[in-house]
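Researcher: I'm preparing a figure for a lab meeting and need a structural model of a single chain. I don't have an experimental structure, so a prediction will have to do for now. The sequence is pasted below. Please return the structure as tokens so I can convert it later.
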Amino acid sequence: MRYLKIIWTILVSLLFAIVRGERGSFTLVGWQQSLDEDGVLSPIDACADQHVAVSGDKIYVPSLNKLVAEYVAQANTVTHAQLQSPSLRRVALLDIAMVQGGIRPSGGESFLPHFSCPIDLAEGEGLEAYINKPADGAIVATVIAYLADGALTPVVGEIFTVKFTATITSVLTQWANGAITLGQTLPVGRYAIVGGDVSEAGGDLIAFRFVVAGYEWRAGGLCTGDLGAKPSPHQRYGGMGVWAEFDSSAPPTLDILAAAAAAQTVVGYIDLIKVG
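Model: Understood. Here is the structure written out token by token.
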């Protein structure tokens, strides 16, 4: 039995090495601004970010230069959203369909994945998000882009889900980070993150990212609007491949982006495969 466990560990490690080569990595970036109506398509500010270069309304495309999904919070008043960059103009600027109403995600189907057909961007160019809001009243507009180095493909394995909690003070227009508390102690070893979900009762959370010490990228997904809301099946149980790996002695922390500045009481779930 002992030798079977050793062989299984080796096979899992080899599987993940193969998967990494085929799938690549992904990360989330965002734009957010409180704005009133102007009736024209206008850029919104890029969120302050620690892992990509940002200036004004531009996020400079990192080496993960494939666009694989988008999300826009329309607050029931935005009539048009678009991503713009010099390289997109070679064919067409990317219009983003708004598939939910409200200032934050209403459920798991609120974003637009095209994981198997990435759109190429030019590394180092400025990527901008544009919004048209002609209706009365100020809103907080948010756009999220998922950047990868290739198509995202599912990964399979023995997946365990662990609940976690966190209290993080969100700051409008920037990602806020905080520690998470796992609901149970993980056995010593190395783990691959293969999915997750974050929610808050009646809150205004929009998106989340896991931050792993020593790892460059910050993979994540959309928050579910309320406790018990259904998350996207894509962002659970290996649907978007491997997000990152961490050692049990250094669990990830959590980035959140919210539609208001407040102390956010977070409840989350992290999907894991033990790989070492």
